[in-house]
Task: inverse folding
């Protein structure tokens, strides 16, 4: 593993433990060159479907894009990075559980919206306004009304 500080390739593992209910192994490492410590995470590489974009291009499912979108939507909101990581894990698992070789980007977007609705209503509306390409205030207000209706607020 390349050291993130000095780029040396030699290190030793100081500690290993499972994380995220046994789906990930967390390893604490020490660089043999600069002696600094860093953490790596190891997970099973599972076959994820290709994402079919609106213009019919296909690209590999990218977990980092999901996490980035969640972070943008939750910017300056009281949502922990741990919650975003867990939401990303759930989205990835749902997509994988579909068992498909290809999945529409729309389906991925809907999973992100479902996760945001559970995490933070303001983040959900932020994401929805971009994802659904609201054209006017009426579409925005309809989403807010639906959200408040679902949560039991009137």
Result:
């Amino acid at each position: 593993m390349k050291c993130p500080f000095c780029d040396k390739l030699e290190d030793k593992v100081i500690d290993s433990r499972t994380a995220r209910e046994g789906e990930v192994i967390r390893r604490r490492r020490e660089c043999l060159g600069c002696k600094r410590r860093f953490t790596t995470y190891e997970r099973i590489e599972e076959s994820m479907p290709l994402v079919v974009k609106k213009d019919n291009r296909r690209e590999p499912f990218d977990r980092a894009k999901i996490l980035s979108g969640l972070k943008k939507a939750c910017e300056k909101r009281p949502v922990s990075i741990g919650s975003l990581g867990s939401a990303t894990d759930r989205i990835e698992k749902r997509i994988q559980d579909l068992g498909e070789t290809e999945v529409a980007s729309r389906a991925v977007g809907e999973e992100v919206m479902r996760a945001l609705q559970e995490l933070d209503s303001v983040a959900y509306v932020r994401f929805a306004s971009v994802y659904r390409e609201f054209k006017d205030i009426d579409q925005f207000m309809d989403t807010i009304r639906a959200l408040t209706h679902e949560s039991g607020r009137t």
